[in-house]
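Below is one such record:
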Amino acid sequence: MPSTTSLTTLAPTSAGTPRYEDGRRQSGRHVRQHQGHRRQEPPTLTAAGLSVILVGVLLPMIDFFIVNVALPTIDRDLHASQPLLELVVSGYATAYALLLVLGGRLGDSIGRKRLFLLGMAAFTVTSLACGLAPNADLLVIGRVAQGASAAMMVPQVLATIQAATTGERRARALGRYGAAGGLAAVLGQVLGGVLVSANVDNLGWRPIFLVNVPIGLAGLVLARRYVPDTRHGAPAPVDGTGTVLLGLTVLTLLVPLTEGRSVGWPAWTIAMLVIAPLAAAAFIRYEVRAERAGRSPLVPPSLLQHRSMRRGLLLALPFFAGFGAFMFCYALLVQEGLRASALTAGLGLVPMAATFLFASLSTPRLLARFGAKVLAAGGLLQAAGLVTLGATVYLGWPHLAVAELAPGLAVAGLGQGLVMSPLFGVVLSEVPPAVAGAGAGVLTTTQQTALALGVATLGSVFLALAADGTGVSTAFLVVITVQVVVAIGVAAGARGLPGWRARAAVASPELAAAGHS
């Protein structure tokens, strides 16, 4: 039987009549209901929103590398000891890597947009504190706080992309995320060289941190408007025990490796290195038990059951370690070995930045056509570029101009772009959406830990060889040789990634859609 309402709403009405007023009230209810349904629709990440959240990747990555070319100037200005100078780099990296997974989980709980805004605000304030630091001790404290702020902000970027995009749009966003991280590393040292050499208002090195303040303030305004608010449907409680064990593992590994050489390897550094594998074993054991018991571990061990995640992480760890070490050693080679200015050192990386950008823009179509073979080609090109660079240093030293390094840097940058840009999409391609946030957190933590490990290990080898009379050029060649082996290993390991058989074998819509971006 038709309702009275349906009959009366078809009858003509005039303003002021009871039926008109009743119909208007019903229409208002329908509009409010419709608006309520619209509010429940999945949030969408627009192009403007993507650009804004990628600033949250660019700023922390730039700040990881920007200090490399500024260390000599910081040393002259603040009269810092070698251990304190290394802490300016490693303190930031350690705090960053230590808190990344926790930052991802907190974003799931309180809202990713909210934590992104909090992280960017804190990053802006701590950047100001670093730029105004009157001595090396306060600069190190500021850098640690800056790294912790970045760890709150960065995980929300990948998590927002996963939550607010699908298919082709997600493929493009993931590709741009990978490209932004690598490009920021190169541009960080270029920008650092320009700012230090410009010596704005006789501030010396300080503008490398102060420049973040206006960018951060603009980012806060734009993020409030354009970044969608996403959160996990049923956020899990924070895994306190897992967080402590993971933090202990990272801390006991990175601190002695970054500081041990400069302080003479005292007993506490050896003790920490002994504790590190024990803490890692305890963390893994606890997480396995937590997942079996139906709880929510910080890092679900079942993630490694997915081939893309398992094999992708095995490639990501050595690749990013080599990348971090290369950027660190390049700055020292050019500034300490060739006595070039910070500006010359920074501008010397422009060929690498240009080819990296070109490769990043080309990888979506190449990936759709050739699959994971793109990463293998990238590894081989990187190895070729490093061999060219090493040969240039060997043959030309010590009468070598920075411009002569351009061919090797350009080829290496092309290879790095072909590996780094698609790596994030490939690693996450088989991870179910339900655990995509955790997978992104694990990948980002691996990336940042590897960057710090590269500086701590190969960077320390470089410094030790350069200081004991071997010479800067020979130390650089030793590091380059190790990195060539790593690049060839990445090329060989790409064979085990999903999508090796090109388009027909691509394992996810995200990778398949990448060819149409």
Q: What stands out?
A: The CA atoms of residues 387 and 481 lie 8 Å apart. The first helix runs from residue 4 to 8. Confidence is low (pLDDT under 50) at residues 1-39, 503-517.
